[in-house]
Design goal:
The structure holds two protein chains of two kinds. By secondary structure, chain A is of the alpha/beta class. Chain A has a six-stranded mixed beta sheet with strand order 6-7-8-3-9-10, with helices on both faces. Chain A is globular and about 60 Å long. Chain B is mainly alpha-helical. Chain B is built from 15 helices and three strands. Chain B has a three-stranded antiparallel beta sheet. In chain B, helix 6 packs antiparallel against helix 7 and helix 9 packs antiparallel against helix 12. In chain B, 51% of the residues are buried. The chains are: A alpha/beta, B mainly alpha. The interface between A and B is large, with 51 and 36 residues.
Chain lengths: 288, 357
């Protein structure tokens, strides 16, 4: 899948003057454990980019680097042409929002109060709660359908409602770029689709650039406008779901034999894993 | 600037409201927290006045107030201003520092158990004081310095040992418990080495008392307090965000590690200074933030209510110990220990009944 180095480099350079967020030859590591080396990724503006890949391929790590939670040990992440680590923290927080995997709702906090905390980067010591803050919070709750829950305590809500509240908080941050780390984990299928529909809506109607890490390849293929497939810290393929999700690629990245058919609902690629027997025969015949 | 201050309801009926000026400035206030703070301050002042009136030479509250405002007779003036007021002020500052320090520790570790009592700061300060008392037979000033150094060294040791790509709640508590155990062992050893007089002195110091505090102890505490409290409050909004986890607060633009480091240093200084001034008064740092939180019913570190709660708690306890057992009979630390311990147990029981723990 990898293109020849020369022309590919040229394309990335030309793009990076346009796109707001990109990683440039980053090496990502926790202490001594290197997750990815020389990794370059462009997030196309106004796209719904989904990062997919097997467990431990570095997709969440990449997202952490893009949101400046993890400082690359080499290379840099660029936001609007500048190294993200060198920008003031609040300025970044007004441009780029993140919905992390782990977040703690403080005891006894109401939905409205939690969503209101998303306004932090727009506030200051003497500008703690403007009329604009209030309007944005109300609007964010309306968009995510939690307006009628405003007075409820977050601990009383169901998992699906809670995830909507956290998304509302990220929305209240009013960032053109929004990163989501596995936003559908721990939700049942109905709420998974619910959250993804909401993401698609934010992308289509408000023109926000979304970057999400998703586990489910079929969800990714259905909702993404741009897919990035990672394996062992390398980008194996990127492009539209139609270009990326092929039987060969799924086998290469996930070691899974499958058919890729057209989704009867949307026409996007749909991965159908091969039956257990069909898969079991493969190594046996190869061994002969 | 404040021609027209509009009180506006927040997005919800519960919780904070915003005060806005036409100039675009706005402050957020929680009416309930405000009421709690005012009531706690009144309680602290009331206990302070009662405390000044209590002793071998009782003075009625009216006279105490008149004397404090500068209209008393010379005899009462000496007793009030020179003998009893400094003691009350030390109590006020110690309680406030412990309350605020405890709230900071609990917020940073996101754990009520992450308070200085459990983390061994008190034990560390005691070790410093005991070294001075037992090994050097130092005077009161030297003991104060020893306790301060002991507290600061312990705080630094806990922070360094708990550091691993940032300090996190459980690790902080576990390391603190370990450090506390070591300091307790050192203290036990020092007590066995002490002679009778030193041991008695050490024991009184170790329970925490406000007896015989004068202006010499007030000034350094007051200066430290006036420097640290504004510094802490300026970073309180970041700390509120940190309740939601490092990732969320980072995403919101809080410089998490910097705020945490700064607030931990402030908390250690506050606690160590309070301990140096009054001995390890137990349970105030643990209970004040928890009590304040129940009263305000608001999420967040509740820094100012905790501070006021600490001050009120300590003065009421000191007044109770003098009233019930006579002047200098029962150190205030015993009363805070009993009151705080009972209240904490009651809290745990009611919380369990309500199914919250």
């Amino acid at each position: 899948m990898s293109a020849p180095a020369g022309p590919d480099r040229g394309r990335i350079d030309r793009r990076s003057t346009v796109n707001r967020l990109s990683a440039e030859n980053v090496t990502l590591a926790y202490d001594q454990r290197v997750i990815a080396e020389q990794l370059s990724v462009e997030i196309p503006d106004h796209s719904f980019t989904v990062i997919v890949g097997p467990n431990a391929c570095g997709k969440s790590t990449l997202l952490r680097a893009l949101s400046r939670m993890l400082k690359p040990s080499r290379g840099r992440v660029l936001l609007d042409g500048q190294a993200i680590q060198s920008l003031p923290a609040k300025q970044v927080a007004r441009t780029l929002g993140l919905l992390p995997q782990s977040s703690i709702a403080p005891d006894g906090i109401t939905v409205a109060d939690l969503v209101g905390r998303g306004r932090y980067p727009h506030q200051g010591l003497l500008r703690q709660w403007s009329a604009e803050d209030e309007r944005v919070v109300r609007e964010s709750m309306r968009q995510t359908g939690v307006a009628e829950l405003a007075e409820r305590y977050v601990d009383e809500l169901s998992g699906g409602q809670r995830q909507r509240v956290w998304i509302a908080m990220a929305l209240a941050q009013q960032t053109p770029l929004l990163l989501l780390d596995e936003p559908t984990t721990y939700l049942d299928i109905q709420h998974q689709i619910d959250v993804l529909d909401l993401c698609a809506e934010l992308h289509e109607e408000q023109g926000r650039t979304l970057v999400a890490v998703l586990h489910d390849l079929n969800h990714a293929a259905r909702y993404a406008t741009h897919l990035v497939a990672l394996k062992a810290g390398r980008v194996v393929a990127q492009g539209t779901p139609g270009e990326v999700v092929t039987a060969e690629l799924v086998e290469e990245v996930f070691h899974l034999r499958c058919q890729v058919i057209d989704d009867p609902e949307t026409g996007t690629p749909l991965v159908v894993p091969a039956a257990r027997r069909a898969r079991a025969r493969v190594p046996a015949t190869e061994a002969l | 600037m404040t021609t027209e201050v509009k009180a506006d309801q927040g997005p919800g009926r519960r919780g904070p409201r915003a005060l806005r000026t036409p100039g675009g400035l706005s402050v957020r206030l929680d009416p309930r927290a405000l009421v709690v703070v005012v009531l706690l301050l009144l309680a602290a002042l009331g206990a302070g006045v009662a405390l000044i009136g209590t002793g071998d030479y009782p003075i009625p509250p009216g006279d105490v107030l008149r004397t404090l405002l500068g209209n008393g007779d010379p005899g009462q003036e000496f007793i009030v201003n020179e003998l009893r007021l400094p003691r009350v002020l030390v109590g006020l500052l110690v309680g406030a520092s412990l309350g605020l320090g405890g709230a900071l520790f609990q917020a940073v570790s996101r754990n009520p158990l992450g308070s200085p009592d459990v983390l061994g700061l008190g034990q560390g300060a005691t070790a410093g004081a005991l070294v001075v008392i037992v090994l050097f037979s130092g005077d009161a000033d030297a003991v104060t310095v020893g306790a301060l150094v002991g507290g600061l060294v312990t705080g630094a040791a806990i922070y360094l040992l708990a550091w691993k790509r940032g300090v996190h709640g459980y690790r902080l508590v576990l390391v603190g418990i370990g450090v506390s155990a070591m300091a307790t062992a050192v203290n036990g050893y020092l007590m066995t080495k002490a002679d009778f007089v030193d041991a008695a002195r050490a024991l009184v110091w170790m329970t925490g008392t406000l007896d015989g505090r004068d202006w010499k102890q007030v000034w350094p505490l007051l200066v430290l307090f006036c420097v640290l409290v504004p510094l802490v409050l300026a970073n309180a909004r970041g700390l509120r965000m940190m309740e939601m986890g490092d990732d969320v607060s980072h995403a919101l633009g809080v410089r998490v590690e910097r705020v945490r480091m700064l607030l931990m240093v402030c908390a250690v200084l506050l606690t160590a200074a309070a301990t140096a001034a009054a001995g390890p008064v137990s349970f105030v740092a643990l209970t004040a933030p928890q009590l304040a939180r129940r009263l305000t019913r608001s999420p967040g570190p509740n820094l100012v209510p905790s501070l006021c709660m600490g001050a009120a708690l300590l003065l009421v306890a000191d007044w109770a110990s003098q009233r019930l057992f006579g002047d200098g009979q029962l150190p205030v630390g015993v009363v805070t220990g009993v009151l705080g311990g009972v209240y904490l147990l009651w809290l745990l029981v009611t919380e369990r009944r309500a199914g919250r723990i």
